[in-house]
Amino acid sequence: MLETFNSLMAGFAVAFQPEILMYAFAGCIIGTLVGMMPGLGPLAGISLLLPATFGLNPIIAIVLLAGVYYGAMYGGSTTSILMRIPGEAASVMTCVDGYEMTKNGRAGPALAIAAIGSFFAGTVGVIGLMLLAPTLASFALRFGPPEYTALLLMGLFVLAYMSGGSMLKTLAMAVLGLLLGMIGIDAMSGYTRFSFDIIELGDGVGIVPVAVGLFGISEILLTAGQAEPPQVQKPKLRELIPSKEEFKLSAGPIMRGSLLGFMIGIIPGSAHIISSFVSYGIERRMSKHPERFGNGAIEGVAGPESANNAAATGAFVPMLALGIPTSPVTAVMIAAIMVHGISPGPLLIQEQPDLFWGFVASMYVGNVVLLVLNLPMVGLFVNLLRIPYAYLYPCILAFCVLGVYSVANSVIDVWIMLAMGGIGYALRKFGFDLAPVALGLVLGPMLELSLRQSLALSGGTYSIFLERPIAVTMFVLGLILLAVALKPLIFKSKDWRSNVGLDDHVG
Amino acid sequence: MADPAESQSQPSARLGIKSDRFSGLLLFLLALYIGWLNRKFPVGTLADPGPGYVPLLLAVALGGIGLLVIAFGGSSQPLRNIKWPEATRAVIILVACSVAAFALERIGYRLTIMALLVFFIGIIERRHPLAVVLVSAGFSLASYYVIGELLHVPLPLGPWGF
Lengths: 507, 162
What we know:
The complex is a heterodimer of chains A (507) and B (162). In chain A, 71% of the residues lie in helices and 1% in strands. In chain A, helix 9 packs across helix 19. In chain A, strand 1 and strand 2 (192-193) form a beta hairpin. Chain A has helices at 2-15, 18-36, 42-49, 58-83, 92-103, 107-140, 145-162, 167-180, 207-223, 244-266, 271-286, 299-314, 316-322, 328-338, 348-351, 353-374, 378-381, 389-408, 411-429, 435-458, 464-467, 469-491, 496-499; strands at residues 184-185, 192-193. Chain B is built from seven helices and no strands. Classes of the chains: A mainly alpha (507), B mainly alpha (162).
């Protein structure tokens, strides 16, 4: 414990360097603006900023990107509360009661509780990360290829179980992503696969063009041509302070949302989105007056906002401790670290303590920056929402082209982005969740390598997965979840999604 | 998802293919295509899996899931109920961006982005010419300055060095 505390202090020494503070500050501001723009969520924001971090040192790069991540989550809640437009998917639940509060003249307290809840949840998340990641990393040093195979497969089963929509469709998208990960030169044999004689595809398909295409371009294709934005309320500073009653009502949901969000954040999938739905469902169920939900209940803002921020931090645990992304955002962040020759994984904390602890401390600093800076400046930020969409979406498109091209100075990446945008647009029309595609793309090469190494180690028998206790435990857990997920599909019963307000169609 | 009871009550909806069944069929066909492409790569043995081994497993998994989506997709909304009101605009956007991708390394970043913005804001959105010029020129020059000059990210120049 003392060692952890000392390491954290060393991390703060790194995070408080003026240069790093400046980048954390810039990341939070950029993220807030990105989160407020329709069509640009945290993933697209991080992907677009990625090339600009290549020239920075790795600590600054990850601090900047983490700031964008947090800021985008915060920005998304602002548009949800003031305009009923979720800047990103995790803020959908905040729209329900947040916008009702705005209509009731309580926009200020809704924004303040969202910010305070996010700050508290971020703090809980950082503490959880700092306690859990080193333990998990030292445990993961025992992992060999069979354990990694089991872990990755379990992650995919959990992803299917926790997905917001149809389990089968989620699995299909994950497999599609894994197949995209097969494109390029096979590391073990040197064969170039599925490259269609395009030399650039020898290196495989990058996460950035896929992520920007699937999430940024497809959103623009769905929303371009929409009407002018509605009028925006501009809350004044003195209107931001919640009443005693509102504080009292929010305390429980903030604490529950923070713990729940962190736990959900660790497991794979669109954790920050799911956590906000689950938190809203729990708060509505626990309330003595559930009829207030949907009519401006502050608990309906406090719980989901805390949950999605805690989940955002929780997602960093497997990323930093195991080197395994559990969400598209962490997949892009892994790419950002790897550009600098650093591999996230069990050895990261030992080999790069400055990076790990500096990152943990800077996340805390980022939370403080968001609380003390963004809330008073909310009136300034909402001016962005007054820009007509006819000007906004062409500029976002130009940003997408610029960002994707700059990653590798490759026009092929721009083509991939556009193709993924078109595919993503069609898939969304058919109700497919796109996050598993991006996740599968990153996990694909890892899964292939560990599976083939496991089979080679065993002399060609799958029983190696049953002989290793850690691997067999993970397989059993994954299969139990898969069986539980299949139950409503076979017996036509309702599953957990219907209880928290998500789509209950699992087929 | 549409209410199954509602969709079943409409005679026209009963006749059409369901959206999930259609998407399941596409997944299955895609799996067949990947399996066919994969024939060029050796599958190897269990003790020494080749480069075609995992893609083959994944193609089988995708095909299997596609069939399950078809099997359980009976309660989804009819395909014809999916509306595409923004499709024309979406195609225009994709074509314009494709032309921009083609032009990017030929005429340079600044001219390409300027032309792209003039097309969208001026021709598609029919905004005031002065606003079109200011936004398109301002955005392309400012973004080049910030990304290309300040952050030292190499961006393509045209044959005229611009």
